[in-house]
């Protein structure tokens, strides 16, 4: 199932693929957080859902929970691309720039699986110029460049939205959001400025990042604002 991100894709972000039927009503895809579950490849093999999957195997050094060797982490992510339901994978920009992701990127391209190159800032929000550079750099290596930052002020949220608009106007596909309470509204508003991916838990209690709306809420807000 392909995921091309030509228009906004709302993902139900989860470690539990059995949530797919509950997500179907509001989501366009599932973000499967492989790092948050045991035996993710076995789980993928048994997946019979309708929604395509964006597979993420987030490193501990990027805020995820994959414990163990990074080479193995990327290998497991590459193996996830063998399943038809996997339409996209998320690869950390840092791993790409370090040269560690060559195999997983090549495997994804061979199998026509889209790549999201992501980076996160859990401490704060860089300047608009720095965010534009990061997004532009990531776009050279992937179909979508994603940046999640932590907003501490409304000024920060405006900088994220401005960077989103600038890089989108330049012709790159981006996914952006400000984590944290102050940044919550950017999850609904960023798509207006071009952001192509939203992340939300089916149940608010299972959030995979700070400041996420639950899936139904983000679906309503994003579609009202973007229509
Ligand atoms: O990178 C992202 C974005 C995210 O961190 C968010 O802020 O919604 C949620 C993660 O599950 C996903 O992999």
From TrEMBL:
Active-site residue list: 120 (proton donor/acceptor), 146 (schiff-base intermediate with substrate)
Pfam families: DHquinase_I
SUPFAM superfamilies named in the record: Aldolase (SSF51569)
E.C. no: 4.2.1.10
Keywords, alphabetical: Amino-acid biosynthesis, Aromatic amino acid biosynthesis, Lyase, Schiff base
Functional pathway: Metabolic intermediate biosynthesis; chorismate biosynthesis; chorismate from D-erythrose 4-phosphate and phosphoenolpyruvate: step 3/7
Positions that bind 3-dehydroquinate: 31-33, 58, 187, 208, 212
This protein's record includes keyword Mitochondrion: no
GO MF terms, alphabetically ordered: 3-dehydroquinate dehydratase activity
Family the UniProt entry places it in: Belongs to the type-I 3-dehydroquinase family.
Job description of the protein: Involved in the third step of the chorismate pathway, which leads to the biosynthesis of aromatic amino acids. Catalyzes the cis-dehydration of 3-dehydroquinate (DHQ) and introduces the first double bond of the aromatic ring to yield 3-dehydroshikimate.
Protein name listed in UniProt: 3-dehydroquinate dehydratase
Gene: aroD
């Amino acid at each position: 199932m392909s995921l091309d991100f030509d228009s906004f894709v709302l993902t139900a972000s989860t470690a539990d693929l059995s949530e797919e039927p509950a997500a179907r009503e509001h989501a366009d895809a599932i973000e499967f957080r492989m790092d948050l579950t045991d035996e993710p490849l076995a789980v993928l093999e048994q997946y019979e859902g309708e929604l395509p999957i964006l597979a993420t195997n987030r490193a501990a050094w990027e805020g995820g929970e994959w414990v163990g060797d990074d080479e193995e982490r990327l290998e497991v992510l590459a193996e996830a691309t063998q399943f038809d339901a996997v339409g996209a994978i998320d690869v950390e920009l840092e791993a790409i720039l370090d040269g560690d992701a060559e195999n997983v990127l090549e495997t994804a391209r061979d199998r026509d699986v889209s790549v999201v190159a992501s980076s996160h800032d859990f401490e704060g929000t860089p300047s608009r110029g720095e965010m534009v550079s990061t997004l532009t750099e990531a776009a050279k290596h992937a179909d979508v460049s994603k940046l999640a930052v932590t907003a501490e002020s409304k000024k920060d949220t405006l900088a994220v939205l401005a960077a989103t608009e600038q890089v989108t106007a330049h012709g790159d596909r981006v996914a952006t959001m400000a984590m944290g309470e102050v940044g919550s509204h950017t999850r609904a508003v960023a798509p207006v400025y071009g952001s192509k991916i939203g992340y939300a838990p089916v149940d608010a209690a299972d959030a995979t990042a700070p400041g996420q709306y639950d899936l139904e809420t983000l679906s309503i807000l994003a579609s009202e604002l973007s229509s």
